Amino acid sequence: MQKILVVEDEVKVANAVKKGLEENGFDVDVAYDGRIGKGLAISNNYDLVILDLNLPHHNGYEICEVIRHKNNRVPVIMLTALGGVEDKMQAFELGADDYLVKPFDFRELLARIRVFLKRAGSEATHGTQYKISIADLEIDREKKDVTRGGKKIALTAKEYQLLEFLAMHKGKVISKLTIAEKVWDIDFDTGTNVIEVYMNFLRKKIDKDFEQKLLHTKTGMGYYLSEE
């Protein structure tokens, strides 16, 4: 049975999510404040975490950061009333995998959860036992480490996911829509410039200090990773 942590201070919301998830076969722990949520996240291993942002004692950003220091793989879904672009950007920068704004339909939350758990299971079975090399860039998919020219490059969880996805499709032009669906998942708001922002983040870390550029843009079509 897959285990999910829900950190939510609105008792009615937390209990409704817990009930719905348990009815769908999940084992669920609930924390009604940030201190308890942080402690559970540190002391237990979960298959997925659902986080509110506005929490007593420790907010969702802080807990997400703690989770990422402990485990760079567990999917984290932010479930919050804060729907601003800046709120989303900060959540993704700290390592959140998805962002769902209240009020929400439980069926949509369940669909997102299943997408992440299916992906995590597939990667554990098939996809993490090797390295991807492009020129002097090396991606260790098991350790989630990235180096270029032998120098380790520190990436956030979302930056890593974007780079890994492009590397897995080396040389292929990937549209913004495809990136939104595969890296940011269901119903990502493609009207924002989040993808462009993250591509700029990656370029600064991957290409800026190197003569050979690996990240490329095909105007009007998308992005690709290539040695050209």
TrEMBL record:
The keyword Phosphoprotein applies. Keywords: DNA-binding, Phosphoprotein, Transcription, Transcription regulation, Two-component regulatory system. It comes from the Bacteria. Transmembrane segments: none annotated. Gene3D superfamilies: 3.40.50.2300, 6.10.250.690, Winged helix-like DNA-binding domain superfamily/Winged helix DNA-binding domain (1.10.10.10). Residues 129-227 bind DNA. Residues 129-227 form the OmpR/PhoB-type domain. The keyword Phosphoprotein applies. Residues 3-117 form the Response regulatory domain. InterPro entries: CheY-like_superfamily, OmpR/PhoB-type_DNA-bd, Sig_transdc_resp-reg_receiver, WalR-like, WH-like_DNA-bd_sf. The modification 4-aspartylphosphate is found at residue 52. Pfam families: Response_reg (PF00072), Trans_reg_C (PF00486). PANTHER family: REGULATOR OF RPOS. This is Response regulator transcription factor. It comes from Chitinophaga hostae.
